[in-house]
From TrEMBL:
Keywords (A to Z) from UniProt: Redox-active center
Pfam families: Rdx
NCBIfam families: CXXU_selWTH (TIGR02174)
Protein name: Selenoprotein W-related protein
Top-level taxon: Bacteria
Organism of derivation: Mesobacillus persicus
UniProt entry tagged with the keyword Transmembrane: no
Gene3D superfamilies according to UniProt: Glutaredoxin
Amino acid sequence: MELVPATGGVFEVSMNGEKLYSKDETGVFPSSEEIIAKLEA
């Protein structure tokens, strides 16, 4: 896992080059459970 600092309130989660979640696209900050479920899927 790697944290990549950014500006503008963007929060994205990617794994192996595939975007799993984007706060910029959804407008909502995810819960920890949501992120863990996406990583496990």
